[in-house]
Design a protein that fits this description.
Length: about 170
């Protein structure tokens, strides 16, 4: 099960989404068989990202809501962070910018402080990536001053961390 989940990042970066989806399905079956709700919910968090990338935003939102429900029941910060981030992506992509700001802004507030420098198993710093997508969403809403605040917050953390992926994310916002 863990080996299948460990293939997520390399397959994602290689654009092998169909293979990735097949691994998620296998992992889901194994997690169900083991009665392992924590791993099952981790798989669902990955499926939020997958469905977002495939343009199936409503499915991404459904999995994202389930992910956040699980995060609350387990008091799991990583699930909460990934759920908020991917829900923000999905809402932004279907032009629901207020909802995108809501979920991405939750991440920024949740991760303020030392957690701003944690990756939570993701490629970029979720704090910075959340700031970047919040900036884009606020720009769509015409809230430029508020967007600038998020841009400055994200830039501060990305520069302090010296994390190239995160620097690129915030500089393209």
């Amino acid at each position: 099960l863990d080996l299948r989940l460990d293939h997520r990042a390399p397959l994602w970066r290689l654009g092998k989404l169909e293979r990735l989806f097949a691994l998620f399905q296998e992992a889901e079956e194994l997690a169900r068989g083991l009665g392992d709700p924590r791993r099952l919910d981790k798989i669902y968090a990955f499926l939020v990202q997958y469905y977002w990338a495939m343009g199936e935003y409503q499915r991404a939102i459904e999995y994202g809501e389930s992910c956040l429900t699980a995060a609350e029941s387990f008091n799991d910060l990583t699930l909460r962070v990934t759920g908020n981030l991917y829900l923000g992506h999905a809402y932004h992509s279907c032009s629901n910018y207020p909802k995108a700001v809501e979920y991405l802004g939750r991440n920024v507030e949740l991760l303020e402080g030392e957690n701003a420098f944690e990756r939570f198993g993701l490629s970029g710093l979720p704090y910075v990536v959340s700031c970047s997508w919040t900036v884009d969403s606020l720009a769509e809403l015409g809230e430029f001053d508020r967007g600038l605040e998020y841009a400055l917050r994200g830039t501060r953390v990305a520069e302090t961390a010296g994390h190239p992926y995160s620097l690129a994310a915030i500089r393209t916002a």
